[in-house]
Amino acid sequence: AAAWLAVLGAGQDSSVTEDPDVVDFRAALASAIGADDMDTLYDLAYETELDGVVDQEVEQLKFVVAGYIEQAFKNQVAHLDSADAIINVVEVGQAKGVSSGELDLARAKALTNAQTELERWLQAGDDDALREALAAAVRAGASSAVLEPAQSHLREASDAELRDALAEGDLGTIVAAIDRAVADGAPSDAVQTAKQTRNSQMLQAISDAEASGDLRAKEAAVRTAANVGDPALADTVSTARQALVAEINSTLGNAQALVGSDQNLLRTVVSLASNMGMEEEALTEASSLVAAEDAKEAAREAIRVSTESQDWWALLDALQQAQGAGLPASETAAASQVMTQQAKAAAQSAIEGGGSLDEVQAAWELGKAAGLPATDLAQVTSTLSGEAQLRLRAAQGADATPDQLVEFFEK
Question: Considering the entire predicted model, what is its pTM?
Fold first, then answer.
């Protein structure tokens, strides 16, 4: 790493070489060299502009960094076994100016390793791993003779999977088996038979969903068929989607009435409309109504939980939450009455029970927060005020520091 230091320092006085930008640049370069980071090395050499480095020295720097990039490339390739990972590094190295000789050596290693991976997973019978190894071998430039055993095995495996899926009759399984069979090059007649079965089931699913009246079922059936992208389904999917959109729009237009009568239906319609990418003004209004009702429901739950747990501070927060959510007073009246009663009881208990000063102060704070009138808090207020005056006089008489006086004053 002395080379780039010499390049940056040669012929320059200390005022230049100690420029903060140059110092930061040196640190970044050293870090990239140590990490075999080709991307950062390249960016530093070719995309960094420094006032402290003249043009001639930048050209020297590019030459020096090119050597580091080449070495970083070799180091990365040496530590990799995956053919796919090696090809990724080759693509980066090629973009960063690594020599053709080093690139060819790396490609040769990738090809050798790809062949090994193909043989390994073919013998192990792991079809998913074999598919990944096959894709890597193709990227590495493996010949058709090398690829054929794996391709033949996957074609046979996909054909068998198709037959099993058709025998099982599950639509999701059939769809997945068709996708794999097409990717693996399974016999076209088997794929065509499976597609016909798939399409028949999808058409039936759309028909059943429409007959049920279930909006979610309709949307799921239409979406599943649309995702297949088969032209044979296009007309049915388009018609079903138009009918679904019309039904959703009609429901959205009646959102205000549904808030009080069928909140679940409104929530379902808003969710489906959002998922389908609909952007009608009615959707925005309905979404706001749903959010407002959700906020009210959350406030109701907060009131219930805090009341049951007798957490009166939490009940105060819940009542404020209810007010912000717009709950009518008729729904919060009982909780408000409980809050008032408990605040009064806490104040009375703190005085009559001979509570500590902290307990008296806690009762006073709860009463203030609950909105108790001054008459209900007169005794606790008097107790706190008297104690505060005693402490303040004691502090003054004891020659207290200003900080101690402030503390007493705040209390």
Answer: 0.55
